[in-house]
Amino acid sequence: MQAIADAQPWQLREAARQVGRGGLIAYPTEAVYGLGCDPRCREAVQGLLRLKRRSANKGLILIAANFEQLAPWVRLLDQVRMAEILASWPGPITWVLPAAPDVPEWLAGGRQSLAVRVTAHPLSAALCQACRTALVSTSANLAGHPPARSPLQVRLRCPGIDHILHGPVGGLRRPSVIRDGATGRVIRG
C-alpha cells in the first residue's frame, strides 16, 4: 500500500511526540480516519471523549501493530479461541477480550472487557510502532455523525486535534467488525 511511502519518518515521529505528551491525533485506518491518544493518559482519553461528545460508558478500542502491544491490556482466552483471534490479525476485525485486571475504567467503560485490534493499515501500524504502544482508536467524528475519511473532514468535524497523520484510508466502506472473543459472535457487523 502507498500509505507508508506517503508518510515521512518525521511525520510519524511528530505524531508519536504528540501522543507522548498527551495529545490527540488523527490517522487513517482500514475504513475511516481514527482519533487516538495514549491509552494510559486519563486526561488525553477524557479530552478525546469530550471532543467526540461520547459517553465514557461505551468503552474504547485499542489498535496495535502486533499482539505484543495488546498483551498488557487483555487476558488470554483458551487456546482454540486465541488461535482464531490471532489468525484474523492483522485485519479489520476487532475482538472484545477480557480486560487485564489493571485496565483503567476510562478505557473499558466500566466493563470487564476491552475491544482490541491488530490493524492491517500499514500507516496505523507504523504509527503504533513509532509510539511503542497500542493506541486508542475511535472514528473521527462527533458521536452519531458520519466519520471523517480525509484530513480536511477531520479538521472540519473534530476541531482541537493536535496532529493529523496524512494518508489514504484503506478500502473498507464500514468500520471494523467487532466480535466477542469468547464466543465469536458478531457484535457490530
List keywords for this structure.
single chain; 9-stranded mixed beta sheet; 9 strands
Description:
With 189 residues, this protein is of the alpha/beta class. It has one domain: DHBP synthase (Alpha-Beta Complex), CATH 3.90.870. The chain has eight helices and nine strands. A nine-stranded mixed sheet has the order 7-1-2-6-3-5-4-8-9. Helix 2 packs across helix 7. The radius of gyration is 15 Å and the shape is globular. The two termini are 25 Å apart.
Gist?
This protein has helices at 3-6, 9-20, 42-52, 67-70, 79-87, 105-108, 122-131, 151-157; strands at residues 25-28, 33-36, 61-64, 93-98, 113-118, 135-139, 163-164, 177-180, 186-188.
Question: In terms of topology, how is this protein built?
Answer:
Elements: H1 3-6, H2 9-20, E1 25-28, E2 33-36, H3 42-52, E3 61-64, H4 67-70, H5 79-87, E4 93-98, H6 105-108, E5 113-118, H7 122-131, E6 135-139, H8 151-157, E7 163-164, E8 177-180, E9 186-188
Parallel strand pairs: 1-7, 3-5, 4-8
Antiparallel strand pairs: 1-2, 2-6, 3-6, 4-5, 8-9
Helix pairs in contact: 2-7
CATH homologous superfamily caption: DHBP synthase
CATH class group: Alpha Beta
Q: Give the integer mean of the pLDDT values.
A: 93
Shape: globular
Helix percent band: 25-40%
| Percentage of residues in strands | 15-25%
How many structural domains can be distinguished in the coordinates? 1
The number of helical segments is: 8
H/E element string?
HHEEHEHHEHEHEHEEE
CATH hierarchy: architecture: Alpha-Beta Complex
Residue runs with pLDDT of under 50 for 5 or more positions: none
How many E strands?
A: 9
Alpha-beta classification: alpha/beta
CATH topology: DHBP synthase
- End-to-end Cα distance, whole Å, is 25 Å
- Outline the biggest β-sheet: 9 strands, mixed
Strand order of the largest sheet: 7-1-2-6-3-5-4-8-9
Question: Whole-number radius of gyration?
Answer: 15 Å
Oligomer: single chain
